[in-house]
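## retry 2 of 3
previous attempt timed out at serialization; input unchanged, resubmitting
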Amino acid sequence: MKTCQFTPEKIVSFEAEGNYTYINLSDGGHYIYAKTLKKFEQEFTEHQNFVRISKSMIINVRFARAINKNFIELKNQSVYKISRRRQKEVFIKFNEQI
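## retry succeeded, writing output
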């Protein structure tokens, strides 16, 4: 089995699909892991740039371009919905990066 090594600074987002998580990198690379998003969230809490925006998505706020009440746009032009109960935390993380 091939192991992929990359630094947290290169991770744009984690996207859950069942018990699998897709990791999207700044260079356009994508990896899939047989690990839940919750486990990645626990591992990356030490990195202050990551915030969970919904049940199925964690983003690196360093790659955020714009934010409004319901959506966040990343520098790669992806747009994701922010869940209502996570809006406050997302705004705080985003404003810390400005």
